[in-house]
Amino acid sequence: MDDFHRDTWAEIDLDAIYDNVANLRRFLPTGTNIMAVVKANAYGHGDAEVANTALEAGASYLAVAFLDEALALRKKGLAAPILVLGASRPEDVSLAAEHRIALTVFRLDWLEKAAALYQGSAPVYFHLKMDTGMGRLGVKDERETKQMAALIERHPHFILEGVYTHFATADEINTDYFSYQYDRFLSMLEWLPFRPPLVHCANSAATLRFPDRAFNMVRFGISMYGLAPSPSIKPLLPYELKEAFSLHSRLVHVKKLQPGEKVSYGATYTAQAEEWIGTIPIGYADGWLRRLQHFHVLVDGKKAPIVGRVCMDQCMIRLPGPLPVGTKVTLIGRQGDEVISIDDVARHLDTINYEVPCLISYRVPRIFFRNKRIMEVRNAVGRVGTNA
Ligand SMILES: Cc1ncc(COP(=O)(O)O)c(C=O)c1O
């Protein structure tokens, strides 16, 4: 690959993203809109590429966490409506309106400030967030909710496009708290003088488990990327998800160690016999964390343990034999019959699968595949090549 100059890269299978959204489209009741959640650079996959693919496959709305993420998508030519799920600043309402970016509102004082500051004439779209039990963002008070709805209705340019809430436990087997939040949302909706056009509550877990309780829009994040929202509900998922993210590197150095010779900082690893050790150019600054010492990678179709401490930019693996420099190493993905899934990495790190692709840093170029061919390559500074 001559589009970048580093032997470590992530491959993003946009066909998998497409299929995950298209399958959802078929699964959901007709009339349910799909909002593709592409915050955090599409969970580390690549914001614009994932957004375009999701829209092609049947999503009609995008969601991000911050206004800057929405503006970045606009800069990359995305024209679909975008909702900012997190808190924005009232000073930035004009900027959002100018770019047809909808904002989340959850405080009356914020809305009053935004109304006082807004000088434009473009419509400003709001989604009112209700806190039904997540305890993060959202209005909880009936009077405040009614005052907010009234202010928006009165304002010549403000539009209440949506109302929503977020579940805390939709990915758990026990559905008591989920049901409590759902019922609370139903009763809180009654506080509004009218139903806005878009009503949404379901993340991936709720979408896939309770499609009949999705109102008219779902916010589809983790499962768009082919990942189960939690290990416990994985067996309950209604159709197979396709993982889109894989991570690869190449051997840049191979050496034979004699018994007793050491590897990496702290000299924590000692060769027990004559061993072949390979160096790969990926480390904790790429998001391949130090805690992945004792985990493994795939090389030559077999598992190879990570030995010694993971360094900032490199780590070492014990090879099954004297493999040539340049041999491909798979850190996440498949080689032959062996697979390392994002869930495997998450389990080793004692965390959730969401965190793993988000951790893989800007330093690792993303290669996007569509229709099984390389479509585009992006590194830290942007697009560096395309075969399309
Ligand atoms: C408000 C909100 N809605 C939807 C999502 C998507 O959730 P998931 O990735 O579980 O589908 C998130 C993700 O964290 C979120 O914060």
**What is the first-to-last residue Cα distance?**
15 Å
Q: Stretches where pLDDT falls below 50 for ≥5 residues?
A: none
For CATH, the homologous superfamily of the largest domain is named as Alanine racemase
How many structural domains can be distinguished in the coordinates? 2
- Helicity level: 25-40%
Overall shape: elongated
Instruction: Provide the gyration radius in Å.
Output: 24 Å
Question: What class do helices, strands and sheet pairing give?
Answer: alpha/beta
Task: Supply the CATH class of the largest domain.
Answer: Alpha Beta
Largest sheet: 12 strands, mixed
Provide the β-strand percentage band.
25-35%
* CATH topology descriptor of the largest domain: TIM Barrel
Task: Name the quaternary structure.
Answer: single chain
Number of helices: 11
Q: What small molecules accompany the polymer chains?
A: pyridoxal-5'-phosphate
CATH architectural name of the largest domain: Alpha-Beta Barrel
| Beta strand count | 22
Overall average pLDDT: 96
